[in-house]
Structures are given as structure tokens and as C-alpha cells.
Design brief:
Blueprint lengths: L23 H7 L8 H14 L4 E12 L2 E7 L4 H6 L6 E6 L2 E8 L4 H7 L1 E7 L5 H6 L6 E4 L20 E7 L3 H10 L8 E8 L11 H6 L3 E6 L9 E2 L2 H7 L9 E6 L2 H13 L7 E2 L3
Parallel strand pairs: 7-8, 7-11, 8-9, 9-10, 11-12
Antiparallel strand pairs: 1-2, 1-6, 2-5, 3-4, 3-6
GO molecular function: oxidoreductase activity
Protein name: FAD-binding FR-type domain-containing protein
Pfam family, one: NAD_binding_1
Length: 293
């Protein structure tokens, strides 16, 4: 005699909040392995908390004008936000900015020195307009339009690591494109350039039309910074350095005492990586190669 067993029909009625907290009996049957904490998970949670607690401060634009091809000078009035003014303490710091028509923030390095914010109640930026980005929207705004700024972020370049000037007479500075923005803040903040014997700025751009701050070069040189413009696609009249910044530096390194050399880098990732490799290979301590991110 054969017996046919019919399984009892399973109930498909979902339990309240079953997707959040399954019954313990189910967990026991699954015999799940113990979950161990993972450092990346902890970091992600902390990051999310920081983002959720960002304090946004509205501030009006006081200037939006071309600085070079695809680059814009942007000034923002923060005179009504003393906490923002005092939070900018060193060159290389940055913040997040939001525009009215987009919730996606853009990270921007502050181009003006801290003393400028204290004296004028203004932050200045050099912004590259990239199609489809918040930066492009920002560059399309006008004086009086209101944007939102986060708290000032980062520790800056940490110039104290290459002080005093007589211990680090050589400081090599490298910038490409809009990476010159925080470098301007550094130079105009003053880092004892006139007390050092060899301070060079290798500044790379596609051509002179894309090179911002040319009107400031004379003042920078008078402060003790030798400027070496490097153009990757110059016209026929150009007689200066051409190619990429790292190649131009490689042709004229002149590193005679690597233990007394400091460096500051900001710009294209490939440039910063290759310059770092060149300097370290020549004996410069990686602790003396400063970046703001």
C-alpha cells in the first residue's frame, strides 16, 4: 500500500517588519556565521554621519568673472558669517559649496589667504567650469545670487613641516590647471620665501589662455618665488618650458641637498604621483612633500 504525503501549504502572509528583524528561530536554522566588525564599514558610517551633520551657511556672490579659458574668479561675501571667517586658518583648506538648483555639493579649495577673509569678509575661489557639474552652474550665476557653504575643512598644507626657512632653503612648488588656487593662498599667506635661497613654482597649463593669475606673477616673484610656466600645447611664439610639469622639472632638478628640500603639490593626479616619485628617488623625505588632500 502506498501512502502519498501532501505537504501543508506555507503561509505567505508577511510578518510585520520582517525585512528588518526576522524571528530568532529562523536565524538559528540558518546557522549564520558570526559577523566581525570591518574597518571599512566603520569608516563609511562615520563618513555618512559627517555628511548628515554638515552645517550649510547661505552667502551671496560678490563676483563671478572669467579668470582664463574655462576658469572663473568667484568671490563670496561671508561678512555675516564670522564663524566661517575665523575657521579659515591656513593655506590649502577647502569647503563644500551648493547652488540653488542642485543639491550636489562641489569641493572647492580657497584661493585667498586667511588674512584676506579676516580683512574683507570674503572668500575667493578659482573655479574650473566642467560641463554638467555644480561648478558649471556656479560659474553661470551672477553677483547677488545666494549659494550655501559648508564649514571650512582640512588641515591645509602643513607648512610647519618645512620650517624654519634656514633648515629648508629649497621649496619646490608644483601646480596644474585650477590646482594653482590653493597655491595662490600659500604664496600670498607668506611662508618665508624671501628667507629661502631656492623657491620655484612649476605651473602647468595647456597654453597661456588657460593660465590663471598671470597678473599676480610679478608680486609672487617679488616675494621670493621664481615662477616657471610650463605649457603642454604652446603656440609657435612660446620660448619657455613646454611639455608636462614633471618632465620640465626632471630636466632641471638641481637637488643638491635632499634633506633640506620641501615640496608642495596640487593638481592633476598623474603629475603629483610622478613628481613625488622623482623627489623620493632623489632622497627627499616623503614627510616633506605637502599636499592639501
Amino acid at each position: 500500500m502506498s501512502v502519498t504525503l501532501s505537504p501543508s501549504p506555507l503561509s505567505l502572509t508577511p510578518l510585520p517588519h520582517a525585512h528588518l528583524c526576522p524571528p530568532m528561530s529562523v536565524l538559528r536554522c540558518l546557522s549564520l556565521p558570526k559577523l566581525r566588525p570591518h574597518p571599512h564599514r566603520r569608516f563609511s558610517i562615520a563618513t555618512a554621519v559627517r555628511q548628515d551633520t554638515t552645517v550649510w551657511t547661505p552667502a551671496p556672490l560678490s563676483l563671478v568673472e572669467p579668470a582664463a579659458e574655462s576658469l572663473f574668479h568667484v568671490s563670496i561675501d561671508i561678512s555675516d558669517s564670522p564663524d566661517l571667517v575665523t575657521s579659515h586658518t591656513c593655506a590649502g583648506q577647502y569647503l563644500q559649496l551648493r547652488v540653488p538648483v542642485s543639491d550636489k555639493p562641489s569641493f572647492l579649495a580657497i584661493a585667498s589667504p586667511p588674512s584676506f577673509a579676516a580683512a574683507s569678509g570674503t572668500f575667493e575661489f578659482l573655479v574650473k567650469s566642467i560641463a554638467g557639474s555644480t561648478a558649471e552652474l556656479l560659474c553661470g550665476l551672477r553677483k547677488g545670487d545666494v549659494v550655501e557653504l559648508s564649514q571650512v575643512m582640512g588641515r591645509g598644507f602643513g607648512i610647519d613641516r618645512i620650517d624654519p626657512p634656514d633648515a629648508y632653503p629649497t621649496v619646490l612648488i608644483f601646480a596644474t590647471g585650477s590646482g594653482i588656487s590653493p597655491i595662490r593662498s600659500l604664496i600670498e599667506s607668506g611662508f618665508g620665501a624671501s628667507k629661502r635661497s631656492d623657491v620655484r613654482l612649476y605651473y602647468g597649463a595647456r597654453n597661456l589662455k588657460r593660465m590663471a593669475y598671470q597678473d599676480r606673477f610679478r608680486d609672487w616673484e617679488s616675494s621670493g618665488v621664481k615662477i616657471v610656466p610650463v605649457l603642454s600645447q604652446p603656440d609657435e611664439s612660446w620660448t619657455g618650458e613646454s611639455g608636462y610639469v614633471q618632465a620640465a622639472f626632471g630636466r632641471a632638478k638641481q637637488i643638491y641637498s635632499p634633506q633640506s628640500v620641501g615640496a608642495v603639490l596640487c593638481g592633476q593626479k598623474q603629475m603629483t604621483e610622478e613628481i613625488t616619485s622623482i623627489l623620493v628617488a632623489d632622497g627627499v623625505s616623503s614627510e616633506k612633500i605637502l599636499k592639501n588632500f
